[in-house]
Specification:
This protein is α+β, with helices and mostly antiparallel strands. It has one domain: Alpha-Beta Plaits, CATH 3.30.70. Strands 2-3-1-4 form a four-stranded antiparallel beta sheet, with helices on one face. A hairpin with a 4-residue loop joins strand 2 and strand 3. Helix 1 packs across helix 2.
Length: 65
């Protein structure tokens, strides 16, 4: 299942990598696609939305949706 999050604060490739790493720590099989210019993170994962959102927030980025 693909879940979409609006994530603010990502300004560079390092930010994208940090978010990707955090999500893959939670679910190593997750497929993560980031569109930084749109503040959009798409995650294909079987994990609960709340857990994915928390993983993003724990590395310092605000999750709006």
């Amino acid at each position: 299942m693909i879940q979409t999050f609006i994530v603010t604060g990502m300004t560079c490739g390092h930010c994208e990598n940090a978010v990707t790493r955090a999500l893959k720590q939670l679910d190593p099989q997750a497929e993560v696609t980031i569109d930084r210019s749109a503040n959009r993170v798409d995650v294909q994962s079987g994990q609960a939305r709340a857990l994915l959102s928390q993983a993003i927030a724990e590395v310092g980025y605000a999750v709006a949706a």
